[in-house]
Design brief:
Number of helices: 6
Shape: globular
Number of domains: 1
Strand order of the largest sheet: 4-5-6-7-8
Strand content: 25-35%
Distance between the termini: 61 Å
Order of helices and strands: EEEHHHHEEEHEEH
Length: about 230
């Protein structure tokens, strides 16, 4: 069985970390931040500037909307464990309800094909030294399947790496993953993308390579902080 309430998530310098048995590990998403360059984000930030919109405020609002959408999605697939927080403002409520309408239509369309096992379950892998919280773990057509909810406009390479990292973490907790999917919950559409086991295994291998770079990156940061940088006069 996976680690349950004994796993604690905390923030350290804006990074998500997980604690268990006296050990602290970075989250899968924190590991992936070392390769987090996203051209879509850069283009979006430039577009906001042209529209005279504040990037930081818009990003905060978008993140808040995504968090609320995740909570609503959990409630739909796991009513006994999901809880819906209060909406921040009428506009956010409008967008979240729009996303949930499309998500519910898909869930209803696929009724009978899925059965929830866990939602929003935190765990760590001592073997791979990572932590994370799965969005939705279910049987899909009887197959153990890991799902991650996203409110982006499409599936990105980083999403696939995240699934690969989560698969490693789940296997270390005796939870089989035979396929994995990204569920894009958009404001005007909802799309399920399911990857077969060979693709997810490959994503796990690539994630481990990124994790090695993350460790090097941490050592480089420590080295730069601990040493005086020589400058020529």
């Amino acid at each position: 069985m996976p680690h349950g309430n004994e796993v604690h998530m905390k923030s350290l310098h804006d990074l998500h970390m997980y604690e268990h048995d006296g050990k602290t590990y970075p989250s899968v998403t924190t590991v992936l931040q070392c390769v987090a360059y996203n051209r879509n984000i850069v283009d979006w930030a430039n577009w906001l500037g042209l529209q005279h919109m504040n990037y930081a405020k818009t990003l905060d609002a978008t993140a808040r909307e995504g968090t609320l959408a995740h909570a609503h999605a959990q409630k739909l697939v796991d009513p006994e464990n999901g809880a819906i927080p209060e909406m921040a403002d009428p506009l956010t409520e409008y967008y979240v309800k729009s996303r949930m309408r499309h998500f519910k239509e898909k869930i209803d369309q696929y009724e009978g094909r899925w059965k929830t096992i866990y939602t929003e379950h935190p765990m760590v892998s001592h073997t791979y030294e990572i932590g994370g919280t799965m969005d939705w773990y279910a049987e899909w057509d009887g197959v153990p399947t890991l799902f991650d909810f996203k409110t982006s406009k499409g599936v990105r390479d980083k999403h696939l790496l995240q699934l690969g990292g989560y698969r490693l973490m789940m296997l270390d907790n005796d939870l089989p993953v035979e396929q994995a999917g990204i569920i894009i919950i958009g404001r005007d559409f909802c799309r399920f993308s399911i990857f077969d086991i060979d693709t997810i295994k490959l994503a796990s291998e690539w994630f481990l390579k990124v994790h090695e770079w993350y460790k090097i990156h941490q050592k480089l940061d420590e080295m730069m902080l601990d040493r005086n940088i020589p400058y020529l006069d």
